[in-house]
Amino acid sequence: MTKIAVCGAAGRMGQRIIVAAREAGCTVSGALERPGHEMVGQDAGLIAGCGALGIAISDDLNAVVEGCDVLIDFTTPKVSLKNLEVCALKKKSIVIGSTGFTPEERALAVELARDIPAVLAPNMSVGVNVCFKILKDVAKTLGDDFDVEIVELHHNKKKDAPSGTAVRMGEVVAEALGRDYNKVATYHREGICGERTKEEIGMQTVRGGDIVGEHTVYFIGMGERIEISHRAMTRDMFSRGSVRAAQWVVGKQPGLYDMQDVLGLK
Ligand SMILES: NC(=O)C1=CN([C@@H]2O[C@H](COP(=O)(O)OP(=O)(O)OC[C@H]3O[C@@H](n4cnc5c(N)ncnc54)[C@H](O)[C@@H]3O)[C@@H](O)[C@H]2O)C=CC1
Ligand SMILES: O=C(O)C1=N[C@H](C(=O)O)C[C@H](O)C1
């Protein structure tokens, strides 16, 4: 039985991951929250709504990592990088779902995962990862004749924009078209901003209410349009995906993997 510890245990995702780990037959060996969080000391299972587990939410990163096979972390990039560093020191595996990494932070994650197996993925759902695969083919097939625009919608508590999933969709499309995402991504249009260039990939963000997560990539041509959309109705496929990744990653060769590796989609 894989021993899973959860970081961000009282968060929207952390709570669902505790439930998913139990449903998958894994042992929840530890639960972490930030020092000073009001839930520290409380039973992780009671907070997650799956009944008492006898595991108190802790703020002791070293002790929690020590007791697990794999840490699942859905927090923020800075916290995730610190957790990756501690997992590397203690030779434990890690699954990171946090989003909002800068290119420099992602490069640091690759570096820190040199000696342990780690998964870092902006979206743990099967559906979105199949979309990544489809998008590559569609972009390659359509080529430069279709304008690409990406729109994402999320709840009003989300801290990063655009979503990690939207950025990855942009990167997949840009790469398939031989463009550099960081040069062609266009986040803002206002005033007399001029005609659209052929290369740009528009990135639009909508925030409101309790939207779990919706992504649409538009390929817009002359007289026709293709839309590839994914809508998440609950967080459960993210949490189940992260547990699947945790079970997969333990015992793998060191290195930084993504969900495409876990799902065999490469
Ligand atoms: N990869 C995926 O499939 C998905 C990724 N996400 C990403 O996961 C992250 C978290 O999302 P939510 O759960 O909605 O946020 P949230 O804000 O509900 O939960 C984050 C939790 O992390 C805790 N935290 C902050 N600093 C900490 C520290 N130093 N140690 C331990 N815990 C700490 C917070 O107190 C909070 O409880 C975001 O970056 C989000 O974009 C969300 C859903 C799916
Ligand atoms: O913050 C969220 O909620 C989500 N974040 C991820 C992202 O940024 O892509 C994945 C999902 O859409 C939910």
UniProtKB/TrEMBL annotation:
Pathway: Amino-acid biosynthesis; L-lysine biosynthesis via DAP pathway; (S)-tetrahydrodipicolinate from L-aspartate: step 4/4. (S)-2,3,4,5-tetrahydrodipicolinate binds at residues 155, 164-165. SUPFAM superfamilies: Glyceraldehyde-3-phosphate dehydrogenase-like, C-terminal domain, NAD(P)-binding Rossmann-fold domains. It is found in: Cytoplasm. NAD(+) binds at residues 8-13, 97-99, 121-124. Its main location: cytoplasm. The active site is at residues 154, 158. Keywords: Amino-acid biosynthesis, Cytoplasm, Diaminopimelate biosynthesis, Lysine biosynthesis, NAD, NADP, Oxidoreductase. One of its GO terms (molecular function) is 4-hydroxy-tetrahydrodipicolinate reductase. Its EC number is 1.17.1.8. CDD domains: DHDPR_N (cd02274). The keyword NAD applies. Residues 127-263 form the Dihydrodipicolinate reductase C-terminal domain. The keyword Secreted does not apply. It catalyses: (S)-2,3,4,5-tetrahydrodipicolinate + NADP(+) + H2O = (2S,4S)-4-hydroxy-2,3,4,5-tetrahydrodipicolinate + NADPH + H(+); (S)-2,3,4,5-tetrahydrodipicolinate + NAD(+) + H2O = (2S,4S)-4-hydroxy-2,3,4,5-tetrahydrodipicolinate + NADH + H(+). Catalyzes the conversion of 4-hydroxy-tetrahydrodipicolinate (HTPA) to tetrahydrodipicolinate. Homotetramer. Belongs to the DapB family. This is 4-hydroxy-tetrahydrodipicolinate reductase. The gene is dapB.
